[in-house]
Structures are given as C-alpha cells and as structure tokens.
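Quick note —
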Amino acid sequence: MGKNHYYISMKSYCNLIDESLQKSAIWIEKAKADMETVEKMLKAEAYDWSTFLCQQSVEKLLKGIFILEKQKFPPHIHGLKQLAKLLDKIPPENIFINIELIDKFYIPSRYPEERLSEQQWEQYFTNTFATDLFKKTKEVFLWYSKEYNFKI
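Predicted structure written out below.
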C-alpha cells in the first residue's frame, strides 16, 4: 500500500503542477493582452484607462507568477506592492519603485468618487505621463520575464 499511496500522491502532485502551469499561463497571457490594450488606449488618448490597464497588467502578471510558484490561487488583493512581496524573487529597487508608481493607478482611474483633483488629473493623465508609465510597466514585465524565463 505504501508504494501505491506514494504513486497516487506523485501523480496528484504532477497534475497539480500541470494545472498550475496552465492557470499561470492564462493569467500571464491576460496580462500581455492588457499591455496591447494600453497601446490602443494611448493612441485613443484615453490616458486614464491606459494608466489603469498598466496597473491591471502588472497585477495579472504577478498573480500568474504567484500561481506558478505556489501552485495555488493568490490572495484576493489588488495591491501590486503586496503581491510582489509574496513572490520568491524580490525585484531590484528600480523595478520596485516602478511597481509602487503603477500601483497608484488602480483606484483613481476607475472610481468616480476617488477621482483626483483637476490639477492631479492634468498632471497624471497626459500623453507624456501615460507613455512614461507604460514604459515603466514594460520594464517590470521585462524583469519578471527574465527572472521566470517566459516570453513577453
């Protein structure tokens, strides 16, 4: 019985790994799709939505990596800093600074009652700022893709 029990456990473990890889790939592909949509939003001058989608893409990327590492679904949180700290590989300071900046655009672009002041709106939701945030988002993707050996 001992050998069969071990065999069943190993088989279950392998199935868990395969399932986690599939789920992780889905999250990472969704993150990539959000990045493509950011480019479209920038062209459409929808800068509030482009910044929001930068946040969403990094959130999905980090959750996909969490699934890959831990073989379970990540906690139901949206904070990029919190998600990044749950992973085994901690990014260097410059990437973490990008994550902190991107993290700010989950709420303001999405909920009217949390809107920024007119001055803040004019500062953040411009072509220059949104394009720079997209560049920083790509840097985050590039670092994680190198660390976890996947294609972006």
